Every structure is written in C-alpha cells, then in structure tokens.
Automatic annotation (TrEMBL):
Keywords: Membrane, Transmembrane, Transmembrane helix. The chain crosses the membrane at residues 12-32, 38-57, 69-88, 94-115, 135-155, 161-179, 214-236, 256-274, 286-307, 313-333, 354-374, 380-399. This is Uncharacterized protein. It comes from Knoellia sinensis KCTC 19936.
Length: 659
C-alpha cells in the first residue's frame, strides 16, 4: 500500500511542478502580447482540440494498456513543450504561447485522469476515499513548488522563456515515475484491454456517454465544475492583467499567487480532506465545492455592485474564491469523482473516465469561451462574469445531488445480482400458484429461490406485502438495528468477563449463537429495507479476501443506509470483525456504561426488560452462575425452580442442590 501511494503521489507532485512551469511563463507572455481579451479564443481552441484528443485517446485505450497510454500522452506533451521553447528561444515566436495556453487546461485533466485511473486499479473504493485526497494533493504541492520556483528563477534565467526548458525536464521526471509504477504493478497497469465489438467501436463518444446515467450525470457535473473553475480563473487573470501590465511583474504575481493557492490546498488536503470524505462520504465530496462557490460568488457579486470591480477588495475576493475552490477541488472533488467510477464495472471505468475527463473540460471551455466572446462583443462589465459564475455554480450544486444518487444506484447495481440468477415468475392465476407451490416443495435450492422471488414480485398483485411500509422506514430500520446491537453488546460483555470460569462453556456457545443470530436478523432487516440481492451479496462480499470486493460492499452499505446507520449495521454484520473490534465498533455507535460480569449475568438470567426471552440462554446462564457468582448463585436461581420451561427449572434446582 505504501509503495503504491508513494508512486502515485510522486506522479501528482511532478505533474503539478510541470504544469506550473508551463502556465507561469506561457500565460505571462501571452497576456503581455495579446491581453486578456484574447483568452476566449484559446478556450474555443481548447474545446475543438479537446474533442480531437478525446477521440484519439478513446481509440488508443481500446488497443493500448493504461501504462502505454500514459507514456504516449506524456511523450507528446514533452515534445510540444520542447518545440515551443526552441521557437521562443531562437525565433522569438510569441505566437507559440497560444497553443501552450491551449495545452495547459488539457494536460491537467489528462494527467489527473491517468493518475486517477491507476488509483482505481491499485486501490479499492474505501482506500480511495481515505488516501486519494492526499495523492491528489500532491498536485497542489507540486504546483506550489513550481510556482515558487518559477517566480525565483525568472530573474536569474533572464525571463520567462527558459522556464519552458525546465518544464520539459520535469515532464521527463513524470514519465520516469509513470514507467516505474507500471514496472512494479504490471498486472494492473500493463494489461492490454480486451478488443471491443465493432458496433461498440463505431459508436460516437457522446452516444457512449449517454448510454449510462451515472456516466452522463458525472459528465454534466464535470462540465459544470470545469466551467466554474474557468470562469473563476478568467476573473483572476483579467483583473491581474489590469493590475500588473509588465510581463515580469505579472509572472512574479502568477508564481506567488500559485504558491498561495497550493499551500492552502496542501493544508486542507493534509488536515481535513481525507477525514471529511471518510466521515461524511462521497456526497459531501461532490457538494462541498459548488456549495462554497455559490456562497462566495453571491458575496462577490454583491460586493462588486456595491464597491466596484476595480477595487482592491473585489480583486482580493475573486482571488480568495479561486483559492478555496481549487483547495476543495484538490482535496474533495477529484477524489469523489474518482470514487464514482468504482460504481461501474471494471471494463467500463477507464473508457468512462476518459470520456468524462478528457471531453468534459474542453466542452466547458468551449461554452465559457463562447460566453466571454459575447461578453466582450456586448461590452459587459466584469461583474456579469461573477454573476454568471454564481448561476453555473447553483446548477453544479444541483447536479452534485443527482450524481450522488446515481453513484448509490450504481453501487447497488454492482452488488444486485450474482453472475447467474434464475428468472422470476409472476403469479397471475391459480395454475401458476400451483406451480410455485411445487417449486417451494422442491429439494433443489434454486427451485425454492425462483418460488420466493415469484412471491416477492407478485405481492402487490395478490395483496401480499412482505415488508409493509411505515411512516419512517429509516427510523424503523435503525430501531431494529439498535435492538440487535443491545443483544450483541451484552453478549460480548458477558463473554469477555467469563474468563474460563467452570461451567461457562454452554453459556459461551449460547452467546456465540446469539451474536450470529443477531447478525442474521440485522441482515434481514437491511434486506427488507434496501433490497434482498444487494444486501445479501454485500454481506457475502465483506468476507472476500479481495480488498476491492470488500471495499465495494462497505461503500454500498454506507451510501445506501447513511453513515450513521451503516456504522451500526457494519458493527453487527461484518464477518471480518473479531470480538474486540466488534465491541469497539458497537461502543462507538452507542456507548455503554461499564458493568461487572456478575451484573451482566444477573440481567441475562432475570431478563427484566424482556430483552432475550430465550429459555435456553437463561438455562445456560443459571448453569454458569455458580462458577461466576459463587454462593450468590442460589439467590439468582430461586425464582426459577418452578419455571414453565423444564430445562430452566431443572437447572435452577441443580444450582440449589446441597453441596
């Protein structure tokens, strides 16, 4: 695990440094020569180029392994930057900054997509939530290093142009890290994909995206996210170009500002991002960024109209809103988007990820570029851009909620059915009912499963309701789980305190049976509330030795039940927990006062609240009482000498026998 995370983080750090040494000199030279009014044309060029790149990568990934695809992308990037550096250095061809500005917004999602795709193969969904924020945070660290380095080197190197040579060398370092990762994990990264059928290869990329609701929603989410980020970026660049007309001053500002952005992002990633994602899940990860932008853009719009767009306060605010949004993107958004791909079958993930992240950003930039051209043609104020950012962020926030619902549905579908499931029947007449009755009486378990499925599918037609609806199903589920948790917690407390006392073996066995039965009961409750096939397969997958399968099952239960209820459910049904871990998990969900073994045993036998209502468990408790309570066992046994249950009565009399 450590080596995987180290290599992935190394790649994102190198990617951040590489991108910083590209954008700092290229943007400074471009803005100084052509001004911010030319930026919309670069956005439109990005849209067109992005479509072409997406088509090429989509075709390449059908034939190349992930490792070879990464090498192809990085080699092409290094060649482009090296040629641009040579043209600027020896021919003063400033026009070459235009394609560099086009490359900049393309290489970021492509590079992060390649790292994310590797993460998806090297980590399971739970590991992604816990560790990917820090991996992606490496990009912020690298960008900070690159920004500070560019600002420091621009003077000694004699201007912005030599920084592009440094950028090409950094690209070589990233290429080396990618090759080393593939060398260490060839099974995951060097496997050649299975060939696709001709009809699939002939489909347009857009139609492929539209074929899956999860992919479509995530694509829309990515488009709105990229559009918002580009609008925020334009606001800062446009205002910065006005405040810093000299290329060297602008280069220095870009470098230092980039460092501020990425130091903030690093602190957020290290201190909060992973904890927030682990605690609150992908839903918060998808919604937090657009929610923050909505608030800040609303404040910025109001401030701009009140104080003016040329004030220092407005400039500082638009810088702050970009700093916060980029920090949330590095810490939450990218990891959450990568987690959503885990709800797709393995064979579809890379293709979906390529389509979403390679095409999403260009589409967004094309839309933003068109809007900014209209903005310039109509002579609108920069405050209009801030207002449009607010509207786009609101739509982004709404789509975040939908993306989380589709993610949850995708996880459930992943675990909904085994590779082969008998077809269900729908009972519509007496003859079909007789057929189902024969299946129920069969000795073949598959026949019985077909019959039970038929009864479930037909309950509305015949007036049967195996799971009647209540006013608050979620509350009912939690109440049922809490009741089972009380049983298990008490059973584990008693087991912990028996310490091999004489006569306790029957009680130990009975308590173990109680724990097992409570797990089964909890599973049944979850199955009734959230789907039989999904829950049963999830519980089964929890015992899988494959971390990916277990992680997928845990994540499915969490997004289906909610974090709080899922924690309680997992404390009951997770087969991988030993007594200590299960007791700790239950205590975290419902803390209990410490009681002695003797007190627990008395409660188990007397059952004052009717918690157990199990004569056999009471009999076992009485049998263990002399070894635990000594002479005080007589007092406990007296009320049960005439118990209706003969085993309980006989055991009580045995406790009271003369020594």
């Amino acid at each position: 695990m450590k080596s995987r995370l180290a290599l992935l983080t190394g790649q994102t750090i190198a990617l951040g440094v590489m991108v910083a040494f590209l954008v700092v000199p290229a943007s400074a030279l471009f803005l100084a020569r052509y001004g911010a009014d030319a930026l919309p044309f670069t956005y439109l060029a990005v849209a067109v180029t992005g479509v072409v790149v997406t088509i090429l990568i989509r075709r390449a990934q059908n034939h190349f392994s992930l490792a070879r695809l990464a090498v192809l992308v990085l080699t092409t990037y290094i060649a482009i930057v090296a040629v641009a550096w040579a043209l600027l250095e020896f021919a003063d061809a400033v026009w070459v900054t235009f394609p560099l500005i086009v490359v900049f917004p393309l290489i970021i999602p492509l590079g992060l997509m390649l790292v994310g795709a590797q993460s998806g193969r090297l980590l399971d969904v739970r590991q992604i939530k816990a560790h990917l924020p820090r991996v992606m945070g490496g990009f912020a660290l690298g960008f900070a290093i690159g920004g500070v380095g560019a600002a420091a080197l621009v003077g000694p190197l004699g201007g912005p142009v030599p920084l592009l040579g440094v950028d090409a060398l950094t690209g070589v370092v990233l290429l080396g890290l990618t090759l080393e990762t593939a060398r260490r994990f060839p099974g995951e990264l060097r496997a050649t994909p299975d060939p696709l059928p001709p009809d699939v290869l002939s489909r347009p990329a857009l139609r492929t995206l539209l074929g899956n609701r999860l992919v479509l929603v995530v694509f829309g989410y990515q488009v709105l996210a990229a559009a918002t980020m580009q609008l925020l970026d334009f606001l800062v660049w446009e205002r910065a170009a006005v405040r810093y007309p000299d290329p060297t001053d602008l280069t220095r500002f870009q470098g230092l500002y980039g460092a501020v952005i990425n130091v903030t992002a690093i602190l957020f990633v290290v201190l909060l991002a992973g904890r927030l994602l682990t605690r609150f899940g992908v839903g918060l990860g998808l919604a937090l960024n657009p929610g923050a932008v909505v608030v800040l853009a609303a404040v910025g719009t109001a401030l701009g109209f009140a104080a003016g767009s040329v004030t220092t306060a407005f400039f500082v605010l638009i810088c702050v809103q970009q700093v916060i949004s980029i920090s949330l993107t590095d810490g939450m958004t990218r990891s959450s988007i990568n987690a959503t791909y885990q709800a797709l079958p393995m064979a579809e993930r890379l293709r979906a990820q390529t389509g979403v992240e390679s095409a999403g950003v260009p589409v967004a930039l094309g839309l933003v570029g068109g809007f900014l051209l209209l903005h310039r043609a109509w002579g609108l104020d920069i405050l209009v851009v801030e207002g449009v950012t607010l509207v786009v962020a609101l739509a982004w926030l709404a789509l975040a909620q939908r993306a989380h619902r589709e993610y949850r549905a995708g996880l459930r579908q992943q675990l909904a059915r085994p590779p082969w499931v008998p077809a269900s029947l729908r009972i519509r007449d007496e003859a079909q009912q007789a057929a189902v009755n024969r299946l129920l009486a069969s000795s073949d378990p598959l026949d019985v499963q077909v019959a039970v499925t038929a009864l479930n599918d037909t309950r509305h037609d015949w007036g049967w309701d195996l799971a009647p609806e209540r006013s608050d199903p979620a509350l009912d589920v939690r109440r049922a789980l809490v009741a089972e948790a009380e049983h298990v917690a008490l059973a584990l407390d008693v087991l912990e305190g028996l310490d091999g006392a004489p006569g306790t073996q029957p009680l130990r066995s009975a308590l173990r049976d109680t724990v097992t039965e409570s797990a089964r009961q909890a599973t049944d409750v979850l199955a009734l509330a959230h789907g039989r096939d999904e829950v049963l397969r999830a519980v089964s997958a929890m015992s899988s030795p494959a971390e990916r399968e277990r992680g997928l099952a845990l994540e499915m239960l969490e997004v289906t039940c909610g974090h709080r209820t899922a924690g309680l459910a997992l404390a009951l049904v997770d087969p991988m927990l030993d007594d200590t871990a299960r007791r700790r998990a239950l205590a975290a969900q419902a803390p209990r006062a410490h009681r002695s073994t003797a007190e627990h045993l008395r409660d188990l036998v007397t059952d004052p609240k009717g918690t157990w209502n199990q004569p056999w468990l009471r009999a076992c408790g009485l049998y263990a009482a002399p070894g635990v309570l000594g002479a005080k066992a007589h007092e406990l046994a007296i009320p049960f000498v005439n118990d209706p249950d003969p085993v309980v009565a006989e055991t009580a009399r045995w406790v009271l026998r003369p020594e």
